[in-house]
Amino acid sequence: MMNDPDLLNAASALIARCKAKGEMIATAESCTGGLITGTLTGVDGSSSVVDCGFVTYSNEAKNSLIGVGNDLLAEHGAVSEQVARAMCEGALDRAPNATIAVSVTGIAGPGGGTDTKPVGLVHFGCAAKGRETITTHTVFPGDRHTVRKATVLKAFALIEEMLDRKD
């Protein structure tokens, strides 16, 4: 999937914008398992804007690597707005050079969904130095591949939105 032209074109455009604005990216990924960072680093010149990526698939990893509270995970579940916010803010805090961090946590499928958290539900967070954190969620239709691809593109769009908030 990291060779997908749609993803690589979007990554290339994002890298150019981040470079022009002097921004460095960190990621905190659950349902994409590193695909956001992998797609970004598939583009020449990505080292000038990609700081690091945290793949936090388990709740234990979310807690120990990026500081998502166990109480938050227990109360809201890993797939929630609150956890997406804590993930991006924790990644931004722990990344050595990042100025922007994006997070994704969701249910890519084909199993794991419930009535209140269906397959395709993904929560996003984007935090940046000196700017208010953005959170959103989407339920993407389709199979696991489609949900993960759509999640990467939405994460890129969220970073673009954050770039527009820079003075």
Q: If helices are DSSP runs of H or I spanning 4 or more residues, what is the number of helices?
A: 6
CATH superfamily: CinA-like
End-to-end separation: 34 Å
Indicate the structural class: alpha/beta
CATH architecture, please? Alpha-Beta Complex
User: Which sequence of SSEs, written as H and E, runs from N to C?
Assistant: HEHEHHHEEEH
Question: Order of strands in the sheet with the most strands?
Answer: 2-1-3-4-5
The low-pLDDT segments are none
The total tally of domains equals 1
Q: How would you characterize the largest beta sheet?
A: 5 strands, mixed
Text of the CATH class: Alpha Beta
Mean of residue pLDDT values: 96
Number of strands: 5
- CA-based gyration radius: 15 Å
Shape: globular
Please name the CATH topology.
Maf protein
Description:
With 167 residues, this protein is an alpha/beta fold. The chain has a single domain (5-164), classed as Maf protein (Alpha-Beta Complex), CATH 3.90.950. The protein is built from 6 helices and 5 strands, in the order αβαβαααβββα. Strands 2-1-3-4-5 form a 5-stranded mixed β-sheet, sandwiched between helices. β1, α2 and β2 form a beta-alpha-beta unit. The N and C termini lie far apart (34 Å).
Any descriptors?
21% strand; 167 residues; 6 helices; alpha/beta; five-stranded mixed beta sheet; globular; Maf protein; 44% helix
How do the strands and helices of this protein lay out in sequence?
Blueprint (H helix, E strand, L loop, with lengths): L4 H17 L3 E5 L5 H6 L9 E6 L3 H8 L3 H7 L4 H14 L5 E7 L14 E8 L2 E9 L4 H21 L3
Parallel strand pairs: 1-2, 1-3
Antiparallel strand pairs: 3-4, 4-5
Helix pairs in contact: 1-6
